[in-house]
Amino acid sequence: QVQLVETGGGLVQAGGSLRLSCAVSGRTFRRTVMGWFRQAPGKEREFVAAIRYMDFHEHYANSVKGRFAISREADDKTLYLQMNRLKPEDAAVYYCAASETETTWYLTVSNLRLYDYWGQGTQVTVSS
After folding, report:
1. pLDDT tens sequence across 10-65
2. What is the DSSP letter of 38?
3. Residues in contact with 7: Cβ distance below 8 Å, sequence separation at least 6, in sequence order
4. Does the pLDDT of residue 112 top 90, yes or no?
5. What is the dihedral of CA 75, 118, 98, 82, to 10 degrees?
6. Residue 43, exposed/middle/buried by CB under 10 A (0-12, 13-18, 19+)?
7. Which phi-psi region, left, alpha or beta, contains residue 97 (left: φ > 0; alpha: ψ -120 to 50)?
8. How far apart are CA 116 and CA 34, in angstroms?
9. 102: which DSSP letter?
10. Using an 8 Å Cβ cutoff, are 118 and 5 in contact?
């Protein structure tokens, strides 16, 4: 089994920063994409950022582009999400996700169905 455990969430004032971490453990697997999603109360889970492993290209949702940065440790045991200039609308539970599935025209990095493994989430609260 593959386990993903997110940490680093918390309460921050608008304009502040947080760094989320996702620890990867369990069996070795061939990851194609790792990403971050978030879900606010009453809303659907939405894509935030991802790294595609074939070329390490980073992908971001328009709402976070220029403010958030995804990165990884070289040993692939940890994935990060640096969140800067946080806004109240960034408040949500943030989930780490990993995929063993190749992306297609339909299964893009922003599609939840691409991902095979999910963490339990970490809460991010942004006060205005």
Report:
1. 999 999 999 999 999 999 889 999 999 999 999 999 999 999 999 999 999 999 99
2. E
3. 20, 21, 23, 122
4. yes
5. -60
6. exposed
7. beta
8. 10
9. P
10. no
